[in-house]
Amino acid sequence: MLHAPSALERILQNRQEGISAEVARFILSLSFSAADQKRCHELSEKAQDGMLTESEKAILDDLLTANDVLMILKSSARLQLKQAPPSAA
Length: 89
Known about the structure:
The chain is an all-alpha fold.
């Protein structure tokens, strides 16, 4: 099954000039805190057991959406660095 680009991916693809190598490296340095990673794991386990409250569901949705955006940005950054001339990377 092919992956259809998300709206965010399409926005990033529309930029003709791309992002600078410096910005790409900054994006690649971003990550969730250990506390957020732990919370996401805990909430995911509760979701699998069908035990999430509405408040917890909102928190998990927020974390998963942020993760999706971060993964898309990182993918775009890696591609930009791969395509950049050697002097820009």
